[in-house]
């Protein structure tokens, strides 16, 4: 297989600062498109991965980035979905087996086939090659794993929708957030701020549960009806048995039993963040109210397109801070310090 070299930013080793390198991109296959990347969001998952915090070692050098927005620059000979100049995005995966029950149902993120879901970076594709993500100038991807970004969404603020947006849209849609439903969003960060916007647009009554009241004004501006500090024990007393659905966006270990106590009978707590350590759950926190503890992982291609169209219809984008590639390492430190409102986006022209 022949390749073209493109510029990218990569972590050469675990916990090492990211640096500019060149990486190979495959030549266009019949169903591939070449994307001229315009913007790439910085997700907390990028930081976990390059710092080897999830225990998988990693395929270094790692080029992170799975919130990718750009423009089609070239198409393979049999591409039918896109034309040169189309605005497109790529999210957390770039392939799957396409034939298992989940893939056929549009749940490619849960692929159970031999290939499995191929992550946009730090994975091995069907050609046996390592995948490199969106902190780069260009990306080659199968047309079936790209998304159309509606004209109503600016590319820079749309990029984080490809992970943060779908990570919240999928559980909110699945557990039927809407009128008459009380939804709590735990954490007001890159994920949480999109959860507030989307749940509000769906018509739910939205509460933010954050460690402090520092971001209360932001939370209410984004669409929350209520805002509580979880550092105050009175919060858990006042809200006991309140919510139909709680989505936990936090990647730190919380006392989930306390949060389960905030659910109504038959309520569900959905875990979205992926902490480094196991999460202990007391059986009676579930048994006592026929409560459920669940997880959710991004969304399939069709649902991600549905999310983008929903966001365009309701005027929803991420709140972003655009940076040059030379500030990626600084941005990582600021994410860890919760010093971003609410998503960093890399201007790929600076790579």
Task: Supply the key terms.
6-stranded parallel beta sheet; Quinone Oxidoreductase, Chain A, domain 1; 11 helices; 7-stranded mixed beta sheet; Rossmann fold; 351 residues
Task: Report on this structure.
The chain is α/β, with parallel strands linked by helices. It has two domains: 3-163 and 317-350, Quinone Oxidoreductase, Chain A, domain 1; 164-295, NAD(P)-binding Rossmann-like Domain (Rossmann fold). The chain is 24% helix and 26% strand. The protein contains eleven helices and 17 strands. The protein has helices at residues 44-50, 101-104, 155-158, 164-174, 192-202, 216-222, 233-238, 256-260, 283-287, 301-314, 328-336; strands spanning 3-10, 19-26, 32-41, 68-75, 87-90, 93-95, 118-119, 138-142, 147-148, 182-186, 205-210, 226-229, 243-248, 263-271, 292-295, 320-323, 343-347. Strands 3, 4, 5, 8, 9, 16 and 17 form a seven-stranded mixed beta sheet that branches. Strands 12-11-10-13-14-15 form a six-stranded parallel beta sheet, covered by helices on one side. The chain has a two-stranded antiparallel sheet with strand order 1-2. α9 links the parallel β14 and β15 (292-295). α4 (164-174) packs across α5 (192-202) and α4 (164-174) packs across α10 (301-314). It is globular. The protein starts with a strand and ends with a strand. The model has no long low-confidence stretch (mean pLDDT 96).
Any chance you could write out the topology, listing elements then pairs?
Layout: E1 3-10, E2 19-26, E3 32-41, H1 44-50, E4 68-75, E5 87-90, E6 93-95, H2 101-104, E7 118-119, E8 138-142, E9 147-148, H3 155-158, H4 164-174, E10 182-186, H5 192-202, E11 205-210, H6 216-222, E12 226-229, H7 233-238, E13 243-248, H8 256-260, E14 263-271, H9 283-287, E15 292-295, H10 301-314, E16 320-323, H11 328-336, E17 343-347
Parallel strand pairs: 10-11, 10-13, 11-12, 13-14, 14-15, 16-17
Antiparallel strand pairs: 1-2, 3-4, 3-8, 3-17, 4-5, 5-9, 6-7
Helix pairs in contact: 4-5, 4-10
């Amino acid at each position: 297989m022949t390749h073209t070299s493109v510029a990218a930013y990569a972590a050469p080793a675990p916990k090492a600062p990211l640096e500019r390198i060149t990486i190979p991109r495959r030549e266009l296959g019949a169903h591939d498109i070449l994307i001229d990347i315009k913007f790439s969001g910085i997700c907390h998952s990028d930081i976990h991965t390059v710092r080897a915090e999830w225990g998988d070692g990693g395929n270094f050098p790692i080029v992170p980035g799975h919130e990718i927005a750009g423009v089609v620059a070239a198409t393979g000979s049999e591409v039918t979905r896109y034309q040169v100049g189309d605005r497109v995005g790529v999210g957390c995966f770039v392939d799957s087996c396409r034939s298992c029950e989940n893939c056929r149902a549009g749940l490619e993120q849960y692929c159970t086939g031999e290939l499995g879901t191929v992550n946009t970076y730090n994975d091995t594709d069907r050609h046996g090659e390592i995948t490199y993500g969106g902190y780069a100038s260009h990306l080659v991807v199968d047309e079936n794993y790209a998304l159309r970004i509606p004209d109503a969404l600016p590319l820079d603020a749309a990029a984080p929708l490809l992970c943060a947006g779908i990570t919240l849209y999928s559980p909110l849609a699945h557990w039927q957030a809407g009128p008459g439903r009380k939804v709590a969003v735990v954490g007001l960060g890159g994920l949480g701020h999109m959860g507030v916007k989307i749940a509000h647009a769906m018509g739910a009554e939205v509460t933010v549960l954050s460690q402090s009241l520092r971001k209360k004004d932001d939370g209410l501006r984004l669409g929350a009806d209520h805002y509580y500090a979880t550092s105050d024990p009175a919060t858990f007393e006042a809200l006991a048995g309140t919510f139909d659905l709680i989505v936990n966006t936090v990647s730190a270990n919380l006392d989930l039993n306390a949060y389960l106590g905030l659910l109504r009978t038959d309520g569900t707590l959905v875990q979205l963040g992926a902490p480094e350590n196991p999460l202990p759950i007391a059986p009676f926190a579930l048994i006592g109210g026929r409560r459920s503890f669940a997880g959710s992982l991004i969304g399939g291609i069709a649902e991600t397109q549905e999310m983008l169209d929903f966001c365009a219809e309701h005027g929803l984008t991420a709140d972003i801070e655009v940076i040059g590639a030379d500030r990626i390492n600084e941005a990582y430190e600021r994410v860890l310090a919760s010093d971003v409102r609410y998503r960093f986006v890399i201007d790929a022209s600076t790579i």
